[in-house]
TrEMBL record:
Highest taxon in the source lineage: Bacteria
Name recorded for this polypeptide: TonB-dependent receptor
Entry keyword set: Cell outer membrane, Ion transport, Iron, Iron transport, Membrane, Receptor, Signal, TonB box, Transmembrane, Transmembrane beta strand, Transport
Stretches assigned to the TonB-dependent receptor-like beta-barrel domain: 324-881
Gene Ontology MF terms in the entry: siderophore uptake transmembrane transporter activity
Entry-linked Pfam families: CarbopepD_reg_2, Plug, TonB_dep_Rec_b-barrel
Length: 935
């Protein structure tokens, strides 16, 4: 009897429990009654239940205990629905989401320790959702960010070696550290901890179909929420998991520039398995012949990303990772004449010309160990590898306490095999002969130039007249444009092993939301750089030149090897290593003073330590060079370590703070204001570049950034806009120039000048949708960037300091910052058809701080059409720079070896009105056909 009663009791309890559970299901649609896939449905009570809508817009949550819940339905680009539900039986609920034109009601996590709807924050933040991402031809991270208001993004070099900055906080990001002040992030953590020349975060980032959205924070509280990046945060957030098996496959093909093809495949898949276990996986592979003409494949490779997540009643645990293995390159400048209206020179073309060395396979002695060689092939470009594994968790601890920690381990490698500089060097210029071996010996007499691939002789020259003032004379044949290209083989090996994490504790009170924690990062990095002079023709599609000195009755002297490489390892040498630690503690409080007023206050103390060393070096000068053969001059001057090292060990401590107010006008409008004081510690280029072969005798300056902003956010039925008035000042800008001493062949950086810039401006972002099927978007910035205190060091073209001087340009316009830039677009979506057209305008910019050369304004137009073939299959045709605009994005100064933009003063231009100079054109037209299959 006892067993029977016990059995009946257990059966009764289970029956009651079964009948105490319900199923809630329904469909989510938009205003056009079209299903919304990927909408988030959350039931929140003692435990949280979660699902996503499928391709039909339907959702279903089973085994829901009878209770009172808060139902939250959200989807990027639509206003969130929050509703209280008493669930005591099965429910079917259908919802229509209203458009949120600027995503102001969408929760953002970037720049906020506590996720909040954008309209409730006191920050200037923008979001690119999935639809916006699908309107961009995939040409790199910076190219995508051109769509964000107030962001200057220069993608003229291609996918890497790009520049991104906002609000005039730009001075140290104008050359080869283009992300100097901003943080490029993936899911809340930086892509890379360190930067130095030709080593930036964009090397290790590729946007693809695994990205759900991009959140962009301009300035403001980036000072207290990012690691050493007070200029802003660009956070690429990955797609979330789903309760059901779903995903997307995208196949793309297209042409760029002069008919160069590109092929690309993206894929993403997610599903649930087991008890609240989820996974996501995806990535891409591409083969790209490049936007300009080269004789090799410009980019190839891809990445794979995954996540494995376990949800429990208190939160989640997630393991994630990424493997990137990708080769790409970067474009140099193109020669132009006419300072007032730049036009291509020497038969070049702004849309197709690429003055880069062609493909060849050489073996150049490694200066670190002269018994070994480094393979060098310009077609390899920048080969980046990144293996990253991370663990992220969030748990409710009870009593309104919670903890979140995200930690990532990454192992990075970057190998550069490309050309640096592509200057015009006349055959009558002594520089070209001096660079053979830094004058050891200086070749005088009859020089023979042969095409390395065919062996055909192009020209024989007698250069004996250069010392008599009559220049070089042709004996036979000729070289294109009577010149060779002043270029170097640019070989770099970079490695970095990194650990980074962000730990955050949260305590919620009645009117306060307190967050505090620890952020840290550690990097063990090294860099080796070696440069050799290389002979090539100065023309479209340059050819490598094998050069010999063939004076009658004298032995033939090889000035280059069989591939055209000369002065092995004699132009550049860097062999450095560093350990970096970044530790920050922070605290932030959101104080709800009243129903309409929210105060946001934050502090961040950061300590950054740089410890490392640079190898001292000297040329290898044994008779006959490395091979002991006096008839081979190209290996006579290899730079090698002396065995001594110049060490550095500096710690930078600073306190940053930021405070903001958000005043709620109504549910769809708010005013905000913010004051921020941030700092920027030096990057590793400070030690690696400025102290080449000399002791590191001083720590770098900490730059100070002060920003004030006042803004308005409004989301109406058919019109939404945000506008922000800002003032920013950047102090202690360490400015230096890259110089070449033609007298002794040395390459050096000028002494650092500490300068100040100031920018005042107005950013805006707006959408007007008069009817559901049509929307107009307009965003941009109007600003006045000034070099309020600025001096430039003039080395007079020599290492000798006796003739040096400084020039004061205080009060001039800040270089490379437009006064006006904007995006204006129209979008049409009805039933199965969609289309858009976008006008991007870049205003006039000063090409240097002397304000002697201006980069003219330019416009580009992008367009696209799409058609939904079936429930699962759709097609899109995209085009960027539809009219092949020849806009100029950058300026490198006079067209001479070792020149820089600041050398082109008004006095220089007046004295050389017909001289050529180097500009960097924007990328030419590209078209892409996409096929998307969603399941």
């Amino acid at each position: 009897m006892l067993k029977t009663k016990l059995f009946v009791f257990i059966l009764l309890i289970n029956t009651i429990a079964a009948f105490s559970q319900a199923t809630i299901k329904g469909q989510i649609t938009d205003a056009n009654n079209l299903p919304l896939e990927g909408a988030s449905v959350i039931l929140k009570a003692k435990t949280n239940l979660f699902t996503l809508t499928n391709s039909n817009g339907t959702f279903e949550i089973k085994k829901v205990p009878h209770d009172t819940y808060t139902l939250t339905i959200s989807h990027l680009g639509y206003k969130t629905i929050i509703e209280d539900l008493i669930i005591s039986e099965n429910l079917t609920k259908n919802y229509v989401l209203k458009p949120d034109l600027l995503n102001l009601h969408t929760v953002v996590v970037t720049g906020n320790f506590t996720p909040k709807p954008q309209i409730k924050t006191s920050t200037s933040i923008s979001t690119l959702n999935t639809n916006a991402l699908k309107q961009v031809v995939p040409q790199g991270t910076a190219n995508l960010l051109q769509n964000i208001p107030g962001t200057f993004a220069d993608a003229s070099a291609g996918e890497v070696f790009t520049r991104v900055y906002t609000r005039g906080i730009s001075a140290a990001a104008e050359d080869d550290l283009g992300w100097y002040y901003v943080s490029l992030q993936e899911d809340g953590l930086p892509v890379s901890l360190v930067q130095h020349s030709y080593y930036g975060s964009d090397l290790f980032h590729r946007a693809d179909i695994t990205t759900q959205k991009v959140e962009a924070l301009r300035g403001g509280n980036a000072s207290i929420t990012a690691m050493n990046a007070p200029g802003g945060i660009y956070n690429f957030i990955s797609k979330k998991h789903s309760q059901t098996l779903s995903g997307e496959i995208q196949a793309q093909t297209g042409i760029q520039g002069d008919g160069n093809p590109i092929y690309r495949t993206d894929a993403f898949i997610t599903s649930c398995f087991g008890d609240n276990w989820f996974f996501t996986a995806g990535g891409h592979y591409r083969h790209n012949e490049g936007a300009r003409n080269t004789d090799f494949t410009f980019s190839k490779g891809g990445q794979f990303k995954f996540s494995l997540l376990k949800e429990n009643s208190r939160g989640y645990f997630k393991l994630y990772g990424k493997y990137l293995n990708d080769k790409t390159n970067r474009y140099n400048g193109v020669a132009a004449t006419n300072w007032n209206d730049p036009t291509p020179a020497f038969g070049f073309d702004f849309n197709t010309t690429t003055l880069m060395m062609p493909e060849f396979q050489a073996n150049i002695p490694d200066g670190r160990n002269l018994n070994t060689t480094n393979s060098f092939d310009p077609s390899q470009g920048a080969h980046a590898k990144d293996l990253a594994v991370g663990f992220d968790f969030q748990q409710n601890l009870g009593n309104n306490w919670s903890v979140k920690n995200n930690i990532k381990f990454s192992f990075k490698e970057a190998n550069w095999q490309t050309s640096i500089s592509n200057a015009f060097v006349s055959i009558s210029d002594p520089t070209v002969y001096y660079l053979v071996s830094n004058g050891n010996p200086f070749p005088v007499g009859q020089l023979v130039f042969k095409d390395t691939k065919t062996g055909n002789e192009l020209a024989t020259i007698n250069n004996g007249g250069i010392f008599a003032g009559t220049g070089s004379q042709y004996i036979s044949g000729s070289l294109p444009n009577d010149a060779v290209m002043g270029t170097s083989t640019w070989y770099k090996d970079n490695d970095a092993n990194e650990i980074m994490q962000q730990l955050n504790f949260r305590k919620e009170f009645t009117t306060h939301d307190l967050n505090f924690g620890l952020a840290s990062g550690f990097s063990d990095t090294s860099v080796f750089t070696q440069g050799s002079f290389a002979f090539s023709t100065y023309e479209n599609n340059p050819r490598m030149l094998q050069v010999t000195l063939e004076n009658p009755e004298d032995p033939v002297i090889a000035l280059s090897d069989e591939y055209g490489v000369s002065n092995y390892g004699g132009l550049f040498f860097t062999n450095s290593r560093a350990d970096i630690s970044q530790i920050a503690v922070f605290a932030n409080d959101h104080w709800q003073i009243s129903k309409t007023l929210l105060l946001d206050l934050g502090l961040r103390f950061e300590s950054i330590k740089h410890k490392g060393s640079n190898d001292m070096f000297e040329p290898y000068t044994s008779t006959g060079g490395l091979d002991g053969d006096e008839t081979t001059a190209y290996d006579n001057n290899i730079l090698q370590p002396t065995g001594e090292r110049n060490t550095f060990n500096f710690t930078y401590n600073y306190l940053s703070y930021s405070g903001g107010l958000n005043y709620k006008l109504n549910e769809d409008a708010a005013l905000f204001g913010r004051f921020s004081k941030g700092h920027k510690a030096p990057e590793l280029n400070y030690y690696f570049n400025n102290f080449s072969n000399v002791p590191v005798n001083a720590e770098g300056e900490i730059q100070d950034i002060t920003q004030i902003e006042l803004g308005l956010k409004t989301s109406l039925k058919d019109f939404s806009f945000t506008t922000t008035l800002f003032w920013s000042e950047l102090k202690n800008i360490g400015s230096t120039n890259f110089e070449f001493d033609s007298d002794n062949g040395s390459i050096f950086y000028t002494p650092i000048q500490n300068n100040t810039s100031r920018t005042i401006g107005l950013e805006w972002e707006s959408v007007y949708s008069p009817i559901n099927i049509l929307a107009f978007r307009f965003n941009g910035v109007l600003q006045n960037p000034k070099a309020s205190k600025w001096t430039v060091y003039d080395a007079a073209g020599t290492v000798d300091t006796s003739d040096d001087s400084t020039t004061n340009y205080s009060g001039n316009q800040l270089a490379f910052n437009p006064k006006l830039m904007f995006n204006l677009s129209a979008e049409f979506n009805k039933n199965k058809f969609s289309s858009f057209i976008k006008w991007q305008y870049m205003g006039k910019r000063e090409g240097n701080v002397a304000n002697a050369f201006q980069l003219d304004p330019y416009s580009t137009f992008n367009a696209g059409i799409g058609y939904k073939i079936s429930k699962n299959l759709s097609a899109n045709l995209l085009a960027s720079n539809v009219f092949n605009s020849e806009g100029l994005a950058n300026f490198f100064g006079a067209n001479t070896f070792g020149a820089n933009a600041n050398g082109a003063t008004q006095e220089y231009i007046d004295a050389n009105p017909d001289a050529s100079f180097v500009v960097v054109p924007i990328l030419p037209r590209a078209t892409m056909l996409q096929l998307n299959y969603v399941f």
